Amino acid sequence: MSTTAGSRDLFGQPRGLTVLFLTQMWEIFSYYGMRSLLVYYMTKQLLLEQQHASLVYGAYTATVYFTPIIGGVISDRWLGRRRAVIIGASIMALGHFLMASESLFYVALAAIALGNGLFLPSLPSQIDGLYAKDDPRRGSAYNVYYVGINVGGLLAPLVCGTLGEVYGWHYGFGAAGLGMLAGLLIYVFGARHLPEDTSRLHASLAPAREAAVLQRHELWQRVRVLAAIALTVMLFRGAYEQLGNTIALWADTGVDRMLGGFTIPMTWFQSLNPLLVIVLTPLFVAHWTRQARHGREPTPARKMAMGAAGVACAYLMLAAVSAATPAGQASWVWLALFFLVLTSGELFILPVGLGLFARLAPAGHGATTIAAWFFATFGGSLLAGVLGTTWSALGPSSFFVLMGAVGVSAAALLWLLDRPTRRVDAVAQSPVIATGPTALPSASSPPGERHASR
User: Fold this and answer.
1) Least packed by Cβ within 10 Å: which of 225, 306, 417, 452?
2) For the chain, how are helix, strand and coil distributed in percent, rounded to 5?
3) What is the DSSP secondary structure assignment for residue 75, as one 8-state letter?
């Protein structure tokens, strides 16, 4: 199978991206749908104490972003990405349906976390293989894919949460399981549009073959650059992940949510983030694609630096607003504007970083490298919790200044990483890997190119 520029289905992208988009959308729907009910289910149905329920919730969400490290290695070395996605999705669906049994509650959580370990790194690592190296759409593909994550995140609490609260917990968990099955079926029946899966033997030989062409220090430099970016993104997430923590607290006490006699629910503001991702992504993708065709698109590291700076600006805006209203509540318009600025910055860094990790992944380690990107979410979430403990001591205005400083620091580090990132990217995309008498199939080559290089 070969991918051509004329194969379009979503925002002018290859059909395979639509398959991956919809698969991820339903997986996120199932994950966030179950997660929206989890604490309520433990405290109201299982009658667990709040402290115990919070501990279980934290351990579960942390494990979900830890298991992909192991799952990525298993996918790269033994299963292959396609089998890893199918097995992982099947285990996750089983875990959701096991939630119907109270006695199997912990088994169900473990199954979902384990299945996610195989699924999460193996699905997005297939995106880069849909594009030729010089395809101008390639740089924006992960932004389109990111929409799927947010569509699922937007629908999950509305569907699963409503079913669970109104009709019974198990209806909500059942809907999450059906969503996971829907994603699995879409992936299986749409597999003909996806890149050819790398065999286990080829995957085990790929690193050695790549090292025969590239000097070993070039490979280690690539790993060092990716590690530096991951650590910087952890720092960025320390500020970004405050959305569900201190920002929610400020929305409760520091914002006037009245609109024509109606009090806007706090959770509605949380839905602004995925909604804005869906609305803004086509605009950014179209703009970046035009820039790429004219050779003016910013490099990935510079995009990410601009995104971190945008998030810093969002927090500094809240700091000014909070300082200007010390004795009262700020208008809800400022909170909505904060989400607009923050989401715009998010689109410059999170999907772009995911795409960069996929493109720079050493041959035979695509899923493992993607898992390292998601591990940054794990570390960043822990950092966000630590930073959040200073909320009460600092007060809103000073805390928002601190978050702005975190964002500025991440932006500065990403800007400094631009030159080494460009260097390793140039080596990774060098024709010596994809052409010539000792040609190697690169991680970013489309299926047709990989087949022709054998």
Assistant:
1) 452
2) 80, 0, 20
3) I
According to DSSP, the residues that pair with 255 across neighbouring strands are 330
Q: Is residue 6 part of a domain?
A: no
Crossing angle of helices 15-40 and 50-64, in 10° steps, is 160
Angle between helices 418-428 and 300-324 (to 10 degrees): 150
For the residues of 182-201, what is the DSSP string, one character each?
Answer: HHHHHHHHTGGGSPPPPPHH
What is each CA distance from 288 to 24, 51, 306, in whole angstroms? 23, 46, 14
CA 381 distance to own-chain centroid: 13
Give the DSSP letter string of 116-127.
HHHHHHHTGGGS
Q: What is the dihedral of CA 341, 345, 348, 351, to 10 degrees?
A: -100
Tell me the pLDDT of the chain averaged across its residues. Answer: 84
**258: helix, coil or strand?**
strand
State the pTM of this model: 0.75
Domain holding 265, by residue range, is: 15-452
Query: Over the stretch 352-382, which tens digit does the pLDDT of each residue have?
Result: 998 899 888 877 778 888 888 888 888 888 8
Return d(Cα 331, Cα 259) in angstroms, integer: 10
| Residue 9 amino acid letter | D
305-339 pLDDT, tens digit per residue, is 999 999 999 999 999 999 998 777 899 999 999 99
Element (H, E) at 304: helix 300-324
Q: Are 378 and 89 in contact (CB under 8 A)?
A: no
Sign of CA dihedral 156, 161, 167, 168: positive
Q: Is residue 349 in some structural domain?
A: yes
Tally of domains within the chain: 1
What is the Cα gyration radius of the chain?
22
List CB contacts of 452: < 8 A, sequence separation 6 or more.
none
| pLDDT tens profile 65-93 | 889 989 999 998 899 999 999 999 999 99
Rounded to whole angstroms, how far apart are CA atoms 130 and 148?
17
CATH of the domain at 89: 1.20.1250.20
b/e per residue 201-213 (b: at least 16 CB within 10 A): ebbeebeebbeee
C-alpha–C-alpha distance, residues 328 and 108, integer Å:
46
